[in-house]
Prior knowledge:
Helices cover 36% and strands 20% of the residues. The chain contains 19 helices and 18 strands. It is an alpha+beta fold. The chain has helices spanning 75-81, 90-101, 105-108, 215-234, 247-260, 276-286, 297-301, 304-311, 316-330, 346-349, 359-372, 382-385, 398-406, 420-425, 432-436, 442-445, 448-458, 466-483, 493-503; strands at 9-14, 32-38, 43-49, 58-60, 65-72, 111-118, 122-127, 136-140, 143-147, 167-169, 177-179, 183-190, 193-202, 239-242, 264-270, 289-295, 338-340, 390-392. Bound molecules: adenosine monophosphate, deoxyguanidinoproclavaminic acid (PCX) and magnesium ion. Residues 321, 343-347, 352, 369, 373, 376, 378, 441-442 line the site of deoxyguanidinoproclavaminic acid (PCX). Adenosine monophosphate (AMP) binds at residues 242-244, 246, 248-249, 266-268, 275, 325, 328, 341-343, 346, 441-442, 445-446.
Amino acid sequence: MPTLPDTIGFSVWIGTPDPLLADPPPFAALGQRVPIVGGTAGLGGIAISPGTDAAAPLTSDGELTVLFAGELYNRDRLAAAVDGGAPGTDAQLLLACCQRYGVSAFRLVSGRFAAVVVGPRRVVVATDHAGSVPLYLRLSEAGMTVATEAKVLAAGATGRLDSPPGTAPVPGIRGLHRIRAGTAVAVDRTSGRWHWPARAVRTWAPAYGRSIPDPDDAVAAVADRLTAAVHARASGEPVTVVLSGGIDSSAVAALATAATGPVATVSLGTDAGDEFDAARAVARHLGTDHTELKLPAADLIAELPWAVAAAEIDDPEVLEYLLPLVALYRRLPATPRRILTGYGADIPLGGMHRTTEPLELLDGVIAADMDSFDGLNELSPLLSGVAGHWSTHPYWDRDVLDLLVSLEPGLKRRHGRDKWVLREAMRGRLPQQTLCRPKLGIHEGSGLTSAWNRMLRDAGVPAGAVPDAKRAMARSLYASAVLCAVRPDEIRIDDVLAEVAEEGGAQ
Ligand code: AMP
Ligand code: PCX
Ligand code: MG
């Protein structure tokens, strides 16, 4: 069995027990529910652990108490910085960093996490640089409640309504605020009295500046950093790579194979489309233990309630990217897996904009995408967490991302090739046909976009109204799966489709 993080989610009150915290909290994350009892620190709640032998969720030195969900990737450097001893658990390491650096610790750690640090005079609530483990909070004069799923705090509808610095309002839920990516929110308290407003400490931001390395050096640097990121996520572990056969996930599969020996690869397809040939060529080349999962496109669309419950968003475009992954994770055998994806490579490299020719435009869309990812929850571990698996994304490793974003756009589009620098970095490690393969989005390769369009047209939605109907379906699902915390298996997609078709003036 691979090692998974001790804790993958939580809901916790700090200060005063929150009577509105539903009991039991309606987490979509699958796992063991472990009580959080922090009497002296004044907090309590529930943590989600993927394993059967759950560790205690809190780590404390008597003064600072850390609640940590997720994992760190620069453990050795952090351990060296805080005095060399054995790093211990990730939560212990974060505690040691907070002792030494205070809230600045969050500028040092590279990871995939959500954390709460409770001290005698201050509480800090923080996410990683990418906000990749979404974190929500509700505030009152008496304290705060924090959770890794919005639906768990959706019923409250009380507390301070103005979003404190460093947070954004959660659509449709009054008084619920999402911690922004790369942000730590700190609230002071003295003698049990909280000092609002909170303070936002920015811990990371994507670069706007671009560097102009020698192309060979850029290629070597991309290979080095991606290798390190895959090592940090896979080393010594049996991992699974979700493989489309495109350059992004094939590169991860190649580097994971080099890091750990044979890996498992899985590809999803439907009767409306698949990329099985491309994925198989990579699997053969690398000698992976490869599986193809094929399902009817209608079954894929029927998984939409799960995708919405996991991503907690109502954006139909992003849901089209995430739905095939959620459906795939839910069809893997139940034993918890450590899953690596190629997700997110296209954002800093401009891969979605494969027809965007002028470099000015390419760099512009990259800057815009790096400005707008926060809150889309594309990287959320809950996408696989609803099936009990842990997923992680090497391209959004902080060091990989910093490098990819900052490269001048002529290294991203070069000699008529998109994602040139990545393709070159993988030369010799993947079949030539994989290195040259044009990008195909997951929503296109799986046939999801066309199948969802057809389903709406068959229900009588006019062609011009299809995008609106998708938006209406996503909004309706968000209202039930997130705002009302209805379990996804109690939502029937046919009912949602019928309701939307009727409202949308089906012909
Ligand atoms: P994309 O950038 O559209 O290829 O998709 C993002 C990531 O999702 C890829 O890098 C893969 O890790 C994964 N993925 C995409 N399509 C599939 C598929 N058909 N089967 C399995 N995984 C996929
Ligand atoms: N992807 C992209 C990300 C999709 C766009 N997201 C954004 N702009 N925040 C990727 O894997 O990088 C596809 C399907 O393409 C998912
Ligand atoms: Mg991709």
